[in-house]
Amino acid sequence: MSSRLRQLHNDFSLSAFIVGLIATMVSYAGPLLIVFQAAKVAGLSEALLSSWIWAISFGTGLTAIVLSIWFKAPIITAWSTPGVVLLVASWSAYSFSDAIGAFLFAGLAITLLGISGLFTKIMKHVPQSITTAMLAGILLSFGVQVFVSMQDFPALAIAMLLTYLLAKRWTPRYAVVFSLLVGVAIAFGFGRMHLDHIQVKLAEPIFTMPTFSLDAIIGLGIPLFIVTMASQNAPGMSVLKADGYDTPASPLIATTGLASFLMAPFGSHGINLAAITAAICTGKEAHPDPDKRYIAGISSGLFYLVFGMFGATIASVFSAFPKELTAVIAGLALFASLISSLTSAMSEPSHRESALITFLVTISGMSIAGIGAAFWGLVAGVVTNLILNGDVRRWFTNAKHKKSSTES
Known about the structure:
By secondary structure, the protein is an all-alpha fold. It has 20 helices and 2 strands. Strands 1-2 form a two-stranded antiparallel sheet. Helix 4 runs antiparallel to helix 12, helix 8 runs antiparallel to helix 17 and helix 8 (about 130-150) crosses helix 19 (about 375-390). The protein is globular.
């Protein structure tokens, strides 16, 4: 134990610690607002809402810490944002206890999928150029928001961008940190920080006995399982691979699935691998040495635990920051990952069309059957690659032979 603590001390860096904080801030500043929308749809009390926020925060924090130490890699987890969007659209048709039962079903399904290793086998058949193109499509909107924010708050956005570029030239490790500090200072100077609205209150976890409804399992549980795996866990693995982390998928998926199952009675709709916030922590901004970036994962987990203790109150903390500040710092922190993803996506000439179609479908924002564009981008890329590079003739021959054998 002492040797492990000594190693953690030696590998610690302020840049990784701050990057972990930024990743947590991005999670709370945006997706948490969707949680409030879903709570209104379901008619949840403030106590149940606070318990829900505690549950997703505690589950996220604990899994990030455990997995980052276990694999010595920045394993960043998060609650399912597409899952919350699904709840906003569908939760009103089901009781809270039935929804808890559906959450349990989804968590168990993800756990079993992770233990079986099926997810790993599926991902082996997807070229890395396609998965990195999907990731680039996800990250693109965040990079664009840096410049969109110049319309609404030009002084802040321009100052943060210039700070980032200047620091990138002379002190690249702390470019994001300096940009954040400048952004906070300018927001204070313009009177855009509303700290007087913050109210501190500890969360009280509430256990809800689940009930199981076939309608809720079909209407909430199965779609939640699909969107979590397709729109969160698949991109999450892509982030790790894009930055050189060959971490096995099965234990990561199984662990997050188990956390989802255990935290569901307290309101958690699902814990999964992060994509956007993970990209913040897996790049060079965290640390030049990839073997020391796991500190960012531990840092992120610790902040999730701390913030989650205050339940719904944390929303008021991050709502005190102007939205432009959050948008700009998230975009700047993802610049390196976006560059890496685009470069990797187009590095293999035979896969460029597949990667391009994946990228375009992902940035389109299309949604079919409640499943987001990231999944359909992946599907479009795989199909395109099969048509352009796969042995289609042999596939049809085998299918015809199999049909003939069956008929005989």
